[in-house]
């Protein structure tokens, strides 16, 4: 099985969900009680989708993403996305 398809499909789903959160304020039903800042949640999903897309690009090239600069950028952007998603659940901000 081609393992780059899994992060690629995840990237597409996260990007669609992030754009929906930014444009319309839609959050998935099981996350509605937790998310306080919808815009930050949407940006976090977009950054995470970009990270998964970057991971799947290395699968198309044929190199492992572990030791390359792309793998490092993907890991750092994944951590940044997780921070954005956590901050979106804190506080009582309205946007």
Question: Which tags fit this structure?
Answer:
95 residues, mainly alpha, elongated
Question: What is the structure about, briefly put?
Answer:
The chain is mainly α. It has helices at 5-24, 38-61, 69-88.
Structural features, described:
By secondary structure, this protein is mainly α. It has three helices and no strands. Helix 1 runs antiparallel to helix 2 and helix 2 packs antiparallel against helix 3. It is elongated, with a radius of gyration of 14 Å.
Q: Can you lay out the helices and strands and say which pair or pack?
A:
Layout lengths: L4 H20 L13 H24 L7 H20 L7
Helix pairs in contact: 1-2, 2-3
What would the principal axes of the Cα set say about the shape? Answer: elongated
Overall residue-averaged pLDDT value = 84
User: Which residue ranges are poorly predicted, with pLDDT under 50 across at least 5 consecutive positions?
Assistant: none
Backbone CA Rg: 14 Å
Instruction: Classify the beta-strand content into a percent band.
Output: under 5%
Order of helices and strands: HHH
Discrete helix count: 3
Q: Roughly how much helix do the residues carry, as a percent range?
A: 55-70%
Q: Helix/strand-derived class? A: mainly alpha
Gap between N and C termini, in Å?
42 Å
Strand element count:
0
Q: Sketch the major β-sheet.
A: none
